[in-house]
Amino acid sequence: MSTILVTGASGQLGQLVLKALENSPHAVIAASRDPSKLNTKFATRAADFDKPETLTEAFKGVDRVLIISTDALAMPGLRLKQHTAAVEAAKAAGVQHIVYTSLPNPEPGNKITFAPDHYGTEQAIKASGIAHTILRNNWYIENLLMSLPHALETGQFYTSAPEGRVAYVAREDAARAAVAALSDAPGGTYTVTGPDALTYGEVVAIANDATGKAVRIVPVTDEQYAGGLKAAGLPDFVADMLTSAEAAIRAGQLDGAADAVKTLTGRAPKTPREVLTAALKA
Ligand SMILES: NC(=O)c1ccc[n+]([C@@H]2O[C@H](COP(=O)([O-])OP(=O)(O)OC[C@H]3O[C@@H](n4cnc5c(N)ncnc54)[C@H](OP(=O)(O)O)[C@@H]3O)[C@@H](O)[C@H]2O)c1
User: Which of 90, 140, 220, 278 is the most exposed, fewest CB within 10 Å of its CB?
Assistant: First the structure.
C-alpha cells in the first residue's frame, strides 16, 4: 500500500479524483490551499504552491503525488514557479512517483499562451529524477458549457477556428485516468482525450439536437474574436488566452483522439454527445 497525495483537491478535477479514489487500496491524502473547504473522508493537509517553505512538510511520508496544475494564469510565469516549487518539495520529501496534469503538444511552438507553463513543468519533473507519468489532458468537454448557453440564446456561435478539431475529454474521464496513473507503475506521457475530435460545427449540432434550437457557426477573425470577448467583459488575459486556443485549434494542436483513457482505465471515455446532451437537457 502506498500513500497518495492529491494537490488542488478542492478544484473540480480534484473532487472527481477523490471520488474515483474512494475504493482505492492506498492511503489517500487530500491537499488544498484551504483544507477546511474539503468535505472528504480522506485525511487532509494544507498545500499551497505559493508557500514553498510549507510544501516539504505537506508532502512528508507521501509515496505518490498527483500535481494538479493550478489556475494561476493572470500573471505570466507564476504557474511554472508554483509547479516547480511543488516538484522541488516532492524531491525533498522523497516522493517516488509524480503524476502531472499537462496539455497536449506543450512543446515550444504551441500557440496557447500558457503552454510554456506546462512544458516547463514537464521539464522540471524530468530533471528532478523522480519517476513520473505525464497526463496531457485535452480540453474538458465541460468547457463548452461556458460558451454554449450564450450561443443557444443568440443562435450564433462565434469562432476563429471553424474548421479545427478538438479531442475534448470529459473531466470525469481525466480524473479516472489520473487515478489509474497514480495506481500504476510510473512511466509514460499520455495524451488524454475523448473518443472523437470535433469541429465547433459538430459541437453546435449536438447542442441543437439536445435543445431543439438552431445555433449556427459565425466565423470571425482572431481580432474580432478577442474584441468580442473583451467587449463582453472578459479580462484581457482571458480573452487573449481563449483567442490563442483558437489559433492552436486551427493549427491542429488539440486535434487527435488517443486511446489513453481506455489504456489506463480499461474503460472507454465518454463522448462529447453523451456529456453535452445530459448537461444541456438537465
Ligand atoms: N483541460 C482543460 O480544459 C482545462 C480547463 C480548465 C483548467 N485546466 C487546468 O486543470 C486544472 C484543474 O482543472 P479544474 O477544472 O479542476 O480547475 P479549478 O476547479 O478551477 O481548480 C483550480 C485548481 O487550482 C488549484 N490551485 C490554485 N492555486 C493553487 C496554489 N497556489 N497551490 C496549489 N494549488 C492551487 C486549486 O486547488 P485548491 O483550491 O484546492 O488549493 C484547484 O485544484 C486547472 O487548475 C488548470 O490548470 C484544464
Answer: 278
Domains in the chain, please, with CATH? 3-138+170-192+256-269 (3.40.50.720)
Q: Which of 71, 134, 242 to mutate to test the pocket of ligand 1 (most atoms within 8 A of CB)?
A: 71
Distance 42 CA to ligand 1 centre (A): 20
Against a cut of 0.85, is the pTM above it? yes
pLDDT along the chain (282 residues), means of 10: 97 98 96 96 98 95 98 94 98 98 98 97 98 98 96 98 98 98 93 98 98 97 98 96 98 98 98 98 90
Contact 225, 231 (CB under 8 A): no
Cell representation of residue 34: 484551504
Locate cell 498527483: which residue? Answer: 66
72-76: long-range pairs with CB below 8 Å, 24+? 73/113, 73/114, 73/237, 73/238, 73/241, 74/235, 74/237, 76/113
112 DSSP 8-state letter: S
Contact yes or no for 200/176 (Cβ under 8 A):
no
